[in-house]
Predict the structure of Zinc-binding dehydrogenase.
Amino acid sequence: MKTIVINNYGGPEVLQLTDMPTPAITTPSQVLVKVKATSVNPLDYQVRRGDYASLFELPIITGHDIAGDVIAVGENVKKWRPGDKVYYSPRFGGTGSYAAYHLTDASSLSRMPANLSYEEAAAVPLIGGTVWEMLVVRAKLKKGDTILILGGAGGIGTFAIQVAKSLGAFVYTTGQSILQEQLQQLGADVVIDHHQKNYVEEIQAHTKGKGVDVIIDTVGGSTLSDSPRALANYGSIVTLVDIALPQNLIHAWEKNATYHFVFTRQNRDELRHITRLIETGQVKPVIDSVYPIEDIKSAHQRIADTKRDRPLFGKIVLSL
Ligand SMILES: NC(=O)c1ccc[n+]([C@@H]2O[C@H](COP(=O)([O-])OP(=O)(O)OC[C@H]3O[C@@H](n4cnc5c(N)ncnc54)[C@H](OP(=O)(O)O)[C@@H]3O)[C@@H](O)[C@H]2O)c1
């Protein structure tokens, strides 16, 4: 089967198109899935670079999203049948999605939303579960709350804006001016161009010094120390980014802030909530671009390149 293999850590050039044997079911709870589409997440270039070298052994098949068809099921699998359309995020540290077929435990599968194509569905599992965890499980975002989503044009950001809006929040986000209209169409009430303006000053001006109830950090850097100045008293900051640098949290203390650190685990229950939002038309995956899997190197270049001629907007998808 067609597979993208990483034999050595490095740039996009280490992603090698290879022919590998198709896996076969070996335990009664397994399911074999024909991968129709997958995606590129920052996690994939981080794995490719060797950021998680202590957790993996080379060679690696990376990839953290799958939309596809069930091909065969183990004898204990009653819920799924060949032909069912499914979507899910393969277990972090296991065999990833950059291959024509994927073997997984039946417990990881979710039914694909009826109103999405394979390409659209492949944009959802990793970020969908992550956004639900951040906004609902951790921040407990509710109607009337104010939220600032840093990195609104990214995979996480484009999804988080829509979910926040569906929950009834007033949404501030950061994004380039050229994307302002698109971000507003997703549900952003106020877009702050982070290349031109200081988001802390903008939030303080917009909220008359009160700050926002929730801040979502997809950016890292000095966000943990800077963003409390844009936070309301007793507000929450939810971050996805692993930050090794020491941070000065004095402003967090002044605000009685709560920090939540999120490292997503595959959670079918969270994806079920996202499926409902998609099927009721409240949320739609945003696709930046679709590449054939053979063109994986260009897809990885696009996500990792910080000097793009066209800004990133949503998810990069790979079709098979
Ligand atoms: N912990 C977890 O479980 C988990 C799960 C998913 C993702 N993540 C992490 O979350 C981060 C975002 O993921 P993603 O999929 O959304 O990435 P992405 O699709 O690459 O998007 C990144 C976005 O952030 C914006 N950005 C970059 N620097 C910024 C800054 N200083 N201020 C404001 N916006 C800025 C970029 O805008 P420009 O184009 O203008 O630079 C881009 O739109 C990644 O680091 C990823 O590894 C973690």
The first helix runs from residue 42 to 49. DSSP finds ten helices and 15 strands in the chain. The longest strand covers residues 30-40. Residues 41-43, 130, 150-151, 153-157, 174, 176, 194, 218-219, 240-241, 262-264, 303, 311-312 surround NAP (CB under 6 Å).
